Amino acid sequence: MSESYRIISDCLRAEFEVAAELVRPEAALADLSLDSLALVELSLMVEERLGVTVADIRPESTLGELAALADATVAADATLAVGAAR
User: Fold this and answer.
1) Is 50 left (phi over 0), alpha (psi -120 to 50) or beta?
2) Rounded CA gap, 10 and 27, in Å?
3) pLDDT, tens digit (0-9, with 9 covering 90-100), for 61-78
4) Is 86 exposed, middle or buried (0-12, 13-18, 19+ CB in 10 A)?
5) Distance CA 22, CA 12 (A)
6) Contacting residues for 66 by C-beta, under 8 A, at least 6 apart
7) pLDDT in tens, 51-62
């Protein structure tokens, strides 16, 4: 799995006390007992730890989808930075 997945997984286990066996790429955030406030907190933690804004975190999103969205945002930001440097 990606670095984003590892960071988000670690955050879920450490900050939200989600049991390790529940943290899987196919797990929906709602299935991890994350309410709307927890999703906002998670989005802020993702922004802080990965440096990307992931604004559209929905309860039905899976952990794998969230990590892929974060990865795509990181990649897009890197592409923009390279383009701006030219």
Assistant:
1) alpha
2) 14
3) 999 999 998 888 877 766
4) exposed
5) 10
6) 8, 29, 46, 54, 57
7) 888 777 889 999
CATH of domain 3-85: 1.10.1200.10
Q: Where are the domains of the chain?
A: 3-85
Task: For residue 78, give both structure tokens.
Answer: 């890197």
Tell me how long the chain is: 86
Report pTM. Answer: 0.81
Q: How far apart are CA 10 and CA 80, in angstroms?
A: 28
Q: Tell which residue, 43, 47, 17, has the closest CA to residue 32.
A: 17
